[in-house]
Every structure is written in structure tokens, then in C-alpha cells.
Amino acid sequence: MNDLEALVQGAQADFAAAPNPAELENAKARYLGKSGRVTELLKGLGALTPDEKKRRGAEINQAKTRIETALQAAREALAEAELAAQLHAEALDVTLPGRGRGVAGLHPVSRTIARIEAIFASMGFDVAEGPEIETDWMNFTALNSPENHPARSMQDTFYVDVNDAQGKPLNLRTHTSPMQVRYARNHAARHAGVEPMPEIRVIAPGRTYRVDSDATHSPMFHQCEGLWIGENISFKDLKFVFSEFVRQFFETDDFDVRFRPSFFPFTEPSAEIDIAFRSGPLAGKWLEVAGSGQVHPNVVRNFGIDPERYIGFAFGMGPDRLAMLRYGVNDLRLFFENDLRFLSQFK
What we know:
3-stranded antiparallel beta sheet; 11 helices; BirA Bifunctional Protein, domain 2; rod-shaped; 7-stranded mixed beta sheet; single chain
């Protein structure tokens, strides 16, 4: 074996033994670098005769070509090994089920409000929505709670640093009853001169605000107010409407309804509405679910309607509390904490 053949085989062995690209480049430098063995052989050609230089140069170039070929083969082998390792580490089992995206669902309070709207719509009630920032007149005075009325202290709320046309600060509405006023006034104006005026049947669901917070109250909560005004609308109609709502909402006839005397400035007489289920985990326990009453003549007058001719009832209930009863939730705060462990149950 001559010196060039030994050189080639040595290079081939070193290249094949290199464990990574960095070691391979170090091996290349030993043979093909500026101070490499092949380079040193080429530098030694200057001491030879022209004929020897030609022969020896050709032999060295052939050896160099073989070494470069071995280097390229080693580079490709390392690249293939690296790719194979990467593919193995990142391998996908195509037989596994896809991860996909989680299926979203409506919040339980949103589901409850939608259910309330559908039930009352089936009984001929419109659904009205309006501003959550209200004027003092709409939120209090029009509903028979003038300034300094003691009933206002029961509805302590949040105020906006902007005044209305009367110079009073705007407030975050404490109930959705202002929508009864807005809807009824628009209805009266739209049907001015029509005899008799068509009945008003409307519910007003939405967010409301009061300075209150505990396990059963939240500073922001939901209400759904209802209003039915006509020439001969009485408590009898209220009892029928609300009993039918409870029957459809809870999908049962196994309950009792009672009206318990109470006070609200915007109704007279007024009553709390309680229900009691005859069976199940809440059997025999009276549960307050709404406030109600015959609309006060002053409020009807503020509607722009003659209280001597038209009469009716109003009620207000909390969708949050109804959702708690329907789904067996014992703490109102769960609805607002955004805990997916809780919310995922309602998908």
C-alpha cells in the first residue's frame, strides 16, 4: 500500500467515525485544511522535476478527489441520521384521535334568559332591551320613587360622572323597569288616537347593578321585568301568566304558587311571588322568585297612558336565581368566576 492509498483510507475511516458534523469538520481540516496532509503534499511538488511533478500531482489530485467524495458521503450520512432522529422524536401516530378544539357552550345564565324569552314570547310578550346607563328620572322618578324617597336607599347603585338634562348624575340602572317606561311611552306615542289602545305585553331582560355582594347577591346581576297593560288586566291574569311560566320553565306541574303581600313604590297593591315544589330536593320549601303588583296609577300616567282607563300588572324576577334553582347551584358567585370546571357542565 503506497502512502496516498493509506492517506485516503485514513481519511475515510476518520470521516466515518465522526459522531457529529462538528467532529467531521475537524477531521476534514486534518486532511483538506490549509495545514492539512493533502495540502502539505501539494506544497512539496515544487521540489520535484517537471515529469515527477506531473505524475505525482495527478496521483495527489486523485487521492484528494476520493477524500472529498468520502467527506461528502459522511456529511450526507450524518444529515440523514439527524433527520431520522428528528422524525422519530416528533413522530405522529396517525391512528390516534385528533385533539381538535373544545366545544363551546352558552353560559347557564344566558341559557336561562333565552329560555325565559322563549316562554314569554309563546304567550305574546315582546322582548325589549335598552341602555344600562340611565337617567335619574327613568330609573327612579318615573317609577314613583321621587328624590329622597326611602325606597331609593334599597337600590344603592353606581353613578357615572356625567349629568343628565336635569343636572342629575347618570347611574347604572338598578333594575330593568326603566325599559317598561321607555317601551310603554313609545307604544303610547305610536298608537296615539287609536281607540282602544292596543295592549302592552313586554318583558325586559338584562344586566342591572347595585352595591351588594354576598353568596346570593352580586354587584352586577340580571333581571327580567314584565309588563301587561290593557283595559281589564288583573291579578288573575298575573297568576295565570306566572304559573304557566313556572310550569314551562321547570317542566313540571308539581308545584304551588302564592302571592305574599309586600311593598314596591311602582305597584299598588304589591306582592312577592313564592313557589313550592311538591316533590324533589326542594319539596315543601317556599322559594321567593319574583316581585309583582298592579302598576301604580302614577307610573301608568308617566307611561303617557290614562290610568283611569288602562290598568295592568308588572313583575320582576332574577334569572340568576332561577338558574340556581334549575341547575342546583348553591352559590351565585360560581356564575361569575369563569371556572371552566363549573361552566363545562353546561355545554
